[in-house]
């Protein structure tokens, strides 16, 4: 979660004192904002070295960045004088954090492929420091599936991607793709450098994610638009919080997250079997999957043919799937049960009712009628509802939202164990 810069007691003025930040600047219009970013992070106490890609020069000069960082700026892997002073491997070891801002669409693609064809991409592979990536580009380029695929790969590889802001762009259009303010980027660096709070250390967390596919015949199925992004983000957030995480995933195109046991399933019945095998020995169950409520009653063994002479209609009979989360909530003893509700009308009222009906401890509701959040989007805006409270989490990236959901779950678990001990 990105904490506010002045939320760290005793370090209000210079919370980044002594921290070594390697800033990678690539060739996008937002590069002109990086001198201000360097100045802001130096004001907060950081020691900064800047590396630019070849195209970054078109938008900001090395001289400006050298002046504000107080250090020589490097651009070339083959600069013998610079290598003699501090070689690229030493520079990679020197950094407490690598912040890449702005990251152009081309740089995201090179990073996602694991290329090492210039100094910045080489440093990213050579460093053990956490890597923060702040993409900025034209909104159509940002929303392109190729870019989104690269972002998903980078997140799956353990990088933190800071989602771009929405608003007026240099090209004259409006949409997501603006580099967030220097304050936001500095806060993300600070949050990364503080040791993660191990709020779920020693806890076992089981998460379901993605859609299910219900076979009509060997080549056709009934399914939905769930991308799995929110479930995967929650599994990663639980892992960051120290939990031992098992993820039961329907068919999605996301990479398997590092450090998490992932079980791939297809149908609701497969998902139910995998959940039943693990639910009795978990402390928290988080049902994020968009489970199909119904499946074709008798899937055909062979591909259904379009027969001449049929009336123009084909009737498909559906039968109800088991409710996986209600099944987990009915177990005794049972884990702490968290469910999701994607609603298109009367979101809060429907979610309150759904929480009680399915026996959930906490429900996370989003209003998918808005169109810009939830299913398949990079961002979400949700309300958490439990027996003694409700909390709105304003629109933000699915990783940041997940960290806040995990914090709330950890707080409720802690109060539950206090009241039962
Ligand atoms: N869920 C489940 N098993 C199902 C259907 C849903 O475990 N067969 C879980 C989802 O993972 C989610 C929650 O139940 O956590 C809410 O799902 P939703 O589809 O909104 O609930 P429904 O019972 O289908 O309610 P409705 O269709 O009436 O909105």
List keywords for this structure.
421 residues, Rossmann fold, 2 domains, 5-stranded parallel beta sheet, 14 helices, 34% helix, disordered N terminus, binds cytidine-5'-triphosphate
Strand residues, percent: 15-25%
Structural class: alpha/beta
Distance between the termini: 30 Å
The number of distinct β-strands equals 19
Detailed description of the structure:
The chain is an alpha/beta fold. It folds into two domains: 20-193, Rossmann fold, CATH 3.40.50; 204-302 and 316-413, 3-Layer(aba) Sandwich (Rossmann fold). Helices cover 34% and strands 24% of the residues. The chain has helices at residues 34-43, 62-69, 80-85, 88-94, 105-113, 119-126, 139-143, 145-156, 182-193, 229-240, 268-279, 324-329, 347-358, 398-420, and strands spanning 20-25, 47-52, 97-103, 131-135, 160-161, 165-168, 174-178, 204-209, 214-217, 220-222, 244-249, 261-264, 284-287, 294-296, 318-320, 336-343, 362-367, 379-386, 389-397. An eight-stranded mixed β-sheet has the order 12-11-8-13-16-17-18-19, with helices on both faces. A five-stranded parallel β-sheet has the order 2-1-3-4-5, sandwiched between helices. Helix 4 (88-94) crosses helix 6 (119-126), helix 5 (105-113) crosses helix 8 and helix 10 (229-240) crosses helix 14. Mean pLDDT is 91; it is low at 1-11. Cytidine-5'-triphosphate binds at residues 208, 268, 287, 289, 291, 293, 321, 323-325, 339-342, 354.
Topology (SSEs and partners):
Layout: E1 20-25, H1 34-43, E2 47-52, H2 62-69, H3 80-85, H4 88-94, E3 97-103, H5 105-113, H6 119-126, E4 131-135, H7 139-143, H8 145-156, E5 160-161, E6 165-168, E7 174-178, H9 182-193, E8 204-209, E9 214-217, E10 220-222, H10 229-240, E11 244-249, E12 261-264, H11 268-279, E13 284-287, E14 294-296, E15 318-320, H12 324-329, E16 336-343, H13 347-358, E17 362-367, E18 379-386, E19 389-397, H14 398-420
Parallel strand pairs: 1-2, 1-3, 3-4, 4-5, 8-11, 8-13, 11-12, 13-16, 16-17
Antiparallel strand pairs: 6-7, 9-10, 14-15, 17-18, 18-19
Bound molecules: cytidine-5'-triphosphate.
